[in-house]
Design brief:
With about 240 residues, this protein is of the alpha/beta class. The chain is built from 9 helices and 14 strands. The longest helix has 15 residues, at about 185-200. Bound molecules: zinc ion and fe (iii) ion.
């Protein structure tokens, strides 16, 4: 079993610690800030052997050098942009390993052009960075609506029970937009209420599942790229 622990960083990032008890191996996903990630790994007695990056943005890679200097971790990340301290370039079809678990790499451009996701089929988990958020998706900084539409389609084509681990706590703001985009959806209204309660108690709303996203994420539910583009544009200025 993979143990997956969130480390809150900055104002709304989550750095994920991934630990395989059987082998004792630990990886850090997107250490934007090394300090809190290393402190949590240390507190748990988990020696860090790897860093996996989903895309180049500094809130995801800013701690790479420090994690590597402190632990000797091997850094794996996308190939299309400069990733600090990178050792292993990951393109479509590449693999990362932790213990007996294999994570396959898919390219999911849209938020950035270099964005990748790591899918551990056997464990039923995927690290999706800033591509898919609970009830939302990343902004299109570099890619096109067509690319992001296809990236979301690939992620939500995974089995329904797959646990998705995004890199930000954006769920409440996304849920408010979702309720605006689909005012007649009981599933969205129900999830909005649940998310509000969680956040009022300072609790995390992640991970999410493919099934929940298919039901309550308007970007995933968009019928085609132009429908998606219209929603994304509307969300960019929504408050
Ligand atoms: Zn980003
Ligand atoms: Fe980010």
């Amino acid at each position: 079993m993979l143990e997956i622990v969130p480390v809150p960083a900055f104002s709304d990032n989550y750095i994920w610690l991934v630990h395989d008890a059987e082998s004792g191996e630990t990886a850090i996903v997107d250490p934007g800030d090394a300090g809190p990630a290393l402190a949590e790994a240390d507190r748990r007695g988990w020696p860090v052997g790897q860093v996996w990056n989903t895309h180049w943005h500094p809130d995801h890679t800013g701690g790479n050098l420090q994690v590597k200097a402190a632990t000797g971790a091997r850094v794996s990340g996308p190939t299309r942009r400069d990733i600090p301290a990178i050792d292993v370039p990951l393109a479509e079809g590449a693999e990362v390993r932790i213990g007996r678990y294999v994570g396959r790499v898919i390219e999911v451009p849209g938020h950035t052009l270099d964005h990748i996701a790591l899918i551990f089929d056997e464990a039923g988990v995927a690290f999706v960075g800033d591509t898919l958020f609970a009830m939302g998706c990343g902004r299109l900084f570099e890619g096109t609506p067509e690319q992001m539409f296809e990236s979301l389609r690939r992620l939500t084509a995974l089995p329904r029970e797959t646990l998705l681990y995004p890199a930000h706590e954006y769920t409440l703001s996304n849920a408010l937009f979702a309720a605006h985009a689909e005012p007649d959806s009981a599933a969205i209204a129900e999830r909005l209420a649940a998310v509000k309660a969680l956040r009022e108690n300072g609790k995390i709303t992640l991970p999410t599942t493919v099934a929940e996203e298919r039901e309550t994420n308007p970007f995933v539910r968009a019928l085609n790229p132009s429908d998606f583009a219209r929603l994304r544009l509307e969300k960019d200025s929504f408050r």
